[in-house]
Amino acid sequence: MGRFFIRRTLEIIPVFFGATFLIFAMVFALPGDPIRALAGEKPLSPAVQRQFREEYNLDDPLPVQYGKYIAGFAQGDFGQTFRGEQVVDIMKEKFPITARLALFAFLFEATLGIIAGLLAGLRRGSFVDNLVLVSTITVVSVPIFVLGFLAQLILGAELGWFPVAGIQDGTMSYLLPAMVLGSLSLCYVARLLRTSLGENLRADYVRTATAKGLSRMRVVGRHTLRNSLIPVITFLAVDLGYLMGGAIVTESIFNVPGIGREVFLAIRGQEGPLVVGIVTAGVLIFMFANLVVDLLYAVLDPRIRYE
Amino acid sequence: MSDRATGVIHETRTRDYEGHLLEVEDLQVEFRTPYGVVNAVNGISYTLDPGETLAILGESGSGKSVSAQAIMGIIDSPPGFVTNGSIRYKGRDLLKLPESEKRAVRGREIAMIFQDALTALNPVFTVGFQIGEMFRVHRGASRQEAKQKAIELMDRVRIPSAKERVGDYPHQFSGGMRQRVMIAMALSLDPDILIADEPTTALDVTVQAQIMELLDDLQSETGMGLILITHDLGVVADVSDRLAVMYAGKIVETGSVYDVYGNPAHPYTEGLMASIPRINQKGEDLSPIRGAPPNLMRIPPGCPFHPRCPYARQRCTEEVPPLYEVSADRRSACHYWEEVISSKEPQRG
Amino acid sequence: MELPVLEEPQQESIDQGPTMSGPDPAGPGAAVTAAAGDAPLRQASLWGDAWRSLRKNPFFVVPVMLLIVYTVMAVAPQLFTDGDPLACNVRNNIVDGQLLIRGPTEGHPFGFDIQGCDYYTRVIYGARVSLTIGLLTVFFSSLIAVTLGSLSGFYGGWVDGLIARFADIIFAIPLVLGGIIVLNTMDSRGVPQVSFALLLFIWPTTMRLMRSSVLSIKEMDYVAAARALGGSDWRILRSHILPNGMAPVIVYSTITVGIIIAVEATLSFLGVGLQLPAVSWGLMISGAQFRILEYPHLLFFPAAFLVVLVFSFILLGDALRDALDPRLR
Predict the structure, then answer these.
(1) Could you report the average pLDDT of every consecutive run of 10 residues in chain C (329 residues)?
(2) C94: phi then psi, degrees, rounded to nearest 5
(3) Could you write out the DSSP letters of every residue in B201-233?
(4) Does C156 reach chain A within 8 Å, measured CB to CB?
(5) How far is CA C176 from the centre of its chain?
(6) ipTM exceeding 0.85?
(7) In this complex, do C173 and A198 lie within 8 Å of one another by their Cβ atoms?
(8) DSSP secondary-structure letter at A258?
(9) Distance set, CA B20 to CA B25, B225, B256 (Å)
(10) Is A211 in contact with B111 (Cβ distance < 8 A)?
């Protein structure tokens, strides 16, 4: 168990550096001069430009720039924006908002997804099963931004159940964006559980459980559900890391001042250090979620634990 | 071995029913698939008494496992349906019992072990939990008692250091040990009937013998009736009292193992015997049965074996042979069984 | 004392009742023919079986028909409308001297957009870029994925390690985020640029699928047999592994076309995808985004066309998966 954990941790280290370097390279090395973008219409004096270039190590070769950046990152120094704000301050302000949004989305997708998956998986071919199948495919087919507008239009503006945008109404204003953010994963959860229930219900050990004279309730609840939930739980754990990526679109539509909207604005404004800071943190969260998944797997499935 | 079994233990089992312990009569099972109806079991009848071992022999697709699953009531439905017949256990027709009573019979009175213990045991629970569950659910035992019982049972099926291994998971055991776990689980509530569905097929030859010996011993101790489903003639010969040979969902020959082996009364059985390699047959060719088993969606008319039968005549393609009485406890579903039984050398296919 | 003629086939046979319970048509059929060897009712070929069950499946037929309509729309939009998507006149929106955005009226079933273009014509013309980007991206990414996945699975060792790690790295970057970052560095963004940016980030999933399917096929006896007969690596890959390993890739790719179309619309909506004057549903919704609450038709029509197209691909992929690999259900 301990060895397994250490091995997995060691495995993700190169992936972490690879992914962050890739992002770093895309932001700093690709065409488009950040200094020029910063200056906008107003030309900067050569002296100021030089100062900037020095401060952001822009004249070093790329790997050196990256090395210096990561060294700072490890010490909690995420650098400054070109406007002189500390990246870490911005992240401290924005992250909690997205975390809250992601948490609501997570609760929404997990609860409804599992309920829908159970209903469908236990009654294959029934009306409910087909309803779940068709509605999940339908929701998956609607891009998040369209879904967001529809939710705003119908649940917000028409019915007036939720605030349309912004976060000035506290928890209430998080609900609609959270439902939109979680909708896609909800569908995956439902379908995943349906599939794995279907497979497990046909497994030999379920037949054994029936042959042991156990009640249907116990056969399903004890002998099938636990095994079937393994892929669902692991999906949910990875998804928690992924919700951040989804937050870009949702936060933009609902005007939620979280990390997703921030990173989008930063990319548009060529705020390199801010983009790299946020994305690096995001990759870190994603890796961590993956590590948690591996551990969860090991805890839930003894076959993996002892490999 | 049935002598030993019927000897002592039997008297301790109360007998409050008429007739046999188990009577299967004219059982029919079909699977309704999108490709058509698969006639898996087509009217089979047999009986089982306490302490007796009935071997059901047949190749895959002969319906032997399906008939056993019908007794346990664990055929997946749909697509599987029992369309006819009765299964009387101690005089009660299991097919007519409500689900709750069927459940009370399963595991407690009739237990079953399966071919592949690795897939038949739940991978995410310890073997101790899975054995102990029988006591927890059926007897309301506490967690501690259940664990204790599980250890006792593991001891009884001769799993070494049972106490240490009770918390292990199925995949941590060897194939033979896993099958012992299955047996321990099946025997936990002292059932009257044990159905063993190919219990040794997935095992090495040496382990096979150990498992069969264990089953044999346990049967002697408990006096249970044993239905042994197999395609392995060797397994049958060593432990069984009676034999039923199945082909295309039907029983084609029944009788004592001694009689059937000694002189088959059905061409299919004869073919089976002829295809076994024997030491004293050195140099002679093995004679496989020609042709292939029938498609269960299109079983040939008349005798289902006729397309592969060296004795077949016109009559065989038209008239379904009934089970002819060969002798007191011997039947054969062949119009020409007399010819078969009198042929010294098995006909070459 | 095992009987030669009575050898139990390893695969599922009719004897094991529960294994037949698959709701899939191919499973029991295959099991039955395996158990009952004489004159199989049908040739048990994967694609043949799949086709027989597909052509009767409404979840296959309906999306295929919809996709045919979309394809015609993309190739020859003139068949659907004789308008010009770029011929716009703000005066179309003036009603009784007031400047509005007119909804559906006679002759203009979808109404007008902010610039006074006929919305129906624009929506029809929008099919072209969506379909092009979807197919182009998935074609090239599948090409990369199948190549790398086959190499990775077939050769293993350091080749596998290198490719798998590289895929892991890409995998850690969300598609939309990666797309935004890459596209933001480009000054002019047309169909090729958007396709390129997306394919950079989507190949790893397909690669992994291909890799695992190659890994499992590699272990099959017929591959060992081919190798024992002296088949070259290339021959074994081409004639055994590729044809048998492609099914999951094709299923996944079909679904991915739908996802890519949705992502393209999202990026265009965010302003980092296609640029005007391209006629794209994402751009249409983007241009309308601040007026949607007042004029829902600006959202509704392009969104409906977009959703139905994505839906068709996903449904098609689902039907293909059910037909090709019943276990995945």
Answers:
(1) 33 33 34 36 59 79 87 80 71 66 69 72 84 91 88 83 84 82 81 87 86 80 75 76 78 87 86 80 80 77 88 87 63
(2) -90, 120
(3) TTS-HHHHHHHHHHHHHHHHHH--EEEEEES-H
(4) no
(5) 17
(6) no
(7) no
(8) S
(9) 12, 11, 17
(10) yes
